[in-house]
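Many introductory courses stop at the sequence. We go one step further.
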Amino acid sequence: MPLMVRAWHGPPAQATEHLPTQDVDKLVDGSGLRGVEVRFFPKQQGVRASKGYDWHHLSGLWHEYLAAEEWIPWRPYPPRKRMQRETDRVDRLKELGAPSLLGNGYGEGQAKLSGEVEFGARFVLPPTTTLAEATQVRSRVAITGSRVARHPVAPRTTPTGED
C-alpha cells in the first residue's frame, strides 16, 4: 500500500513497509520489526546511467520544500554509494548546501534495469506507531509531496551527466 505522488516522471513521496524478506526470522520475538519507511525520492526517467540524474534539481527541491519540514525525523545517515560518480554528486549536493543525508536512493543499477534513477531523503516511523499516527503522517507526507509534484521547473537530463 505505498503512497505515491507524481512529480518529475515519478513519485517524490512513497510510504512502504520496511521489512526485507531475509529478516523474517527476526520476527519471532518482535525485535526485527521496523516501522513504515517514507521516502522522498524524485524519480527521473529516460536515463541510461545515474550520471544523467539532475542533482541540482534535487538540491533545489530539498531547499524549497523539504528543509523547512522540521516535523520530519529524517534518517541522518549519509548515502553509501558504490560508484565514484554518485559519491562525487552527493558531495556536490553538500556544496550546494544540502544536508549529508540527501542522496539516498537507486542509481546505476536501477537505470540499467528500468531507465529510471531516484535519489532523495527518507525517514522511518517507529514500529510502535499506531495506525492513526501513521495515517496522520501519511497525510502530511501527501501534502508535502503534492507541493513537490507541482514544482514548476522540470529536471534537466544532461547528455554527459556533467554538472
